[in-house]
Amino acid sequence: MQRTNFGDMACSIARTLDVIGEPWSPLILRDVFVGLTRFDQIQADLGISRKVLTERLNHLIEHGVLERRPYDRRPRYEYTLTEKGRELVDLLMVMVAWGDTWRAGKAGPPVLYRHHACGEISSVDLRCAHCGEPMHANDVDLLPGPGAAT
Amino acid sequence: MQRTNFGDMACSIARTLDVIGEPWSPLILRDVFVGLTRFDQIQADLGISRKVLTERLNHLIEHGVLERRPYDRRPRYEYTLTEKGRELVDLLMVMVAWGDTWRAGKAGPPVLYRHHACGEISSVDLRCAHCGEPMHANDVDLLPGPGAAT
DNA sequence: CACGATGAGTTCCTTAAGGGAACTCTAAAT
DNA sequence: ATTTAGAGTTCCCTTAAGGAACTCATCGTG
Fold it and tell me: Is the separation of the CB atoms in B114 and A141 below 8 Å?
């Protein structure tokens, strides 16, 4: 399976997928985010192949969203999110919101999010960074930007 | 490559990935969103294999995010977003925001978004659906929800 | 009416990625 | 000296992605 390289496309979606678009990568980030930071923890939690987990972790480190560091004098390592990685958690929260809405079924959402600022169980909503009003698919026009393909 | 089924996991991220987690799927949604709604248009724009495009479109239709409908008396079809699919565009906009921030480089973002409400070039920001304050990775606590795995 | 063009897929072959089990390596702890 | 545990490697098998060629239905044109 020779996979097409998304990183070279003039598209920020493709470039983001180049970092976390492979199967498992978002789930690995989630695990690290919730505190499962060690190889065997992640492997056991996800049931992912150890080979693939190694590949994914290295890819995420190469792209600067995870850091690997020893936590013992023995050869033991843990993975942590960089700032670049922490901002990817935004993406995970939007995935959660969509999955909760469309795929949770009668059982309801598997995880709840309590917002520090208001203390309520809530979910994310997309707002315009400029004016603060809701900003969804139908609220925008697309224009070519400076980095557009020629 | 026998792929693990994400749809059965008690995790809304995994369930969302079950719908659009395969390579190319988000880019197909983007194309349909921006008005490339026909098979050959999408194929040419992305450079995706026709075989894989067929598989992806069928998968997205099965999961109710795309609809296929004839636009001619000849056997010609176009794909459109359902409401379920339109809400996935939120996810794309967050991918764009991250890609613009971390991967656009000196050339700047390839596409700009003008917000209808304020008329400004902007990007999305995550807010609490309840109180409207910013809601990012470090602003939430996670609690088990009603649909949590036993 | 025959003929080519067009959109929308299929088919088939090659290559490489995911799954999974077994194996290795290093440094404690007993 | 032996066991244990974490963190990977290695190897084989299956299956998915790439890609080019092929099919099929219908319309427009000469």
Answer: yes
